[in-house]
C-alpha cells in the first residue's frame, strides 16, 4: 500500500467536540431501561401517555396529500411554497397588517426555526453594515443553546443581556433594559416572541411596549424567534402580540418562524423566514432587493426547501375548517401543559417541598426553569431516572397524569437531601 499522507485535520485543528447536550440527553433517556423513566428533556409535545401526538388536523392534511392525484415530488421554488409563506406571514403579522398591504414583507420557507435563524444570521453577516451600526447580536441570558452556534458560525460577534432573575424566577426587566441601553447603537437583539426557551418567562405586554421604545431609541435591530405561536397561550393572536407591536412601531425586522411545535411537525423541518421593511415610500423596493439576495443565499445553502411539511401546514392554513380544527388542537396541547403546571406546583406545595413553586404556574409554554441546581438535576437522573437539562429546565410536556406525582416526590426528596 502506498504510504498515506498525514491528515489535514489533526486534533489541534479539529479537536473532539462535545456531544450536543440535548440530543445526548435524549440518547441517554432512550438507553435507560427503567420502567419509571421520565423524559423532561427535549422540547417536544407528548400526550398523557407520554407518546408523541400527531395532531388530528395534521392527519387530515396528510390524507389530502396522499389522495391528491396531482401530487408529485417536483422542486419547490427557491423561496418555497407560496401558498404556505403568504399564509405564514399573515399568521405571524396578522392578516390586516399594513406591512402586508404595503408589500414590504419578504417571506421564505426555511428548514424550520433553525434554518430561518441561520438564513437571517447569514443575511445579517453579509449585509448588516450601515455606518455606525454594531454587528454584535445580543441574546437573553440564558437563551436556547443553539442561538450561540448559529450566529457564531456566520462570524457575528455575540453578547448577552440579563433576562432571568434567579431570586424571583421571573424576568430581570431592569437588568435587561439597562444592558440594551448600554449596548452600542444599532446592535442586533434576538428576542423570543413568546414562551421563552429555556425559562418560560415572557415580558408582559406593557414591558414589550417599553422594550420597543427602548430599541427604537437605540436603533437596535430586532430579530424575533417564534417557535411557539398558539402553543404558549392557545391563542395565535396573543402569542404573536410582541412581533405585531414591533411591526406597528415601524421597525425593520426579521422573524424566524418554526412550525415544529405548533403543528407537531418536528422532523419535517417546516418553517418560514420573514423580513419586514420599515414603512417608507421605498419600502417595497427595499423588500424586493433584500429578497433577491435572500434567494441567492437560500439557493447556495439548500437550493429549495422540503415539500412535505410545507404542504401539510399550507393545507391547514388555507382551509378555514381545518384552521379552526388546528386552533382546537393547539388549545388541547397548551391546555394540557397548563394543567400539568398546576398539578406539579400543587403537589410540591402539598409535600411542603422547601422553596417556592409559584414560578411553575407563572411561567408559560413548553418549558419551566425550575431553579433546580445541576447536582440536583444529576441526582434526579441517577436515583430516579428523571431526565432534564443541566440548567434545571423541564419540558412540561413530558409530565402526565401518571408520572407527575412520581416527579414531584422525587424532586421533594432531592431538594431536601441537597439543602
Ligand atoms: C428544545 O429546546 O428542547 C427544542 O427546541 C429542541 C431543540 O432543537 O433544541
From TrEMBL:
It is an enzyme of class 2 (transferase). Keywords: Aminotransferase, Pyridoxal phosphate, Transferase. It catalyses: L-aspartate + 2-oxoglutarate = oxaloacetate + L-glutamate. Its cofactor is pyridoxal 5'-phosphate. Its EC number is 2.6.1.1. InterPro entries: Aminotransferase_I/II_large, Asp_trans, NHTrfase_class1_PyrdxlP-BS, PyrdxlP-dep_Trfase, PyrdxlP-dep_Trfase_major, PyrdxlP-dep_Trfase_small. Belongs to the class-I pyridoxal-phosphate-dependent aminotransferase family. In eukaryotes there are cytoplasmic, mitochondrial and chloroplastic isozymes. This is Aspartate aminotransferase.
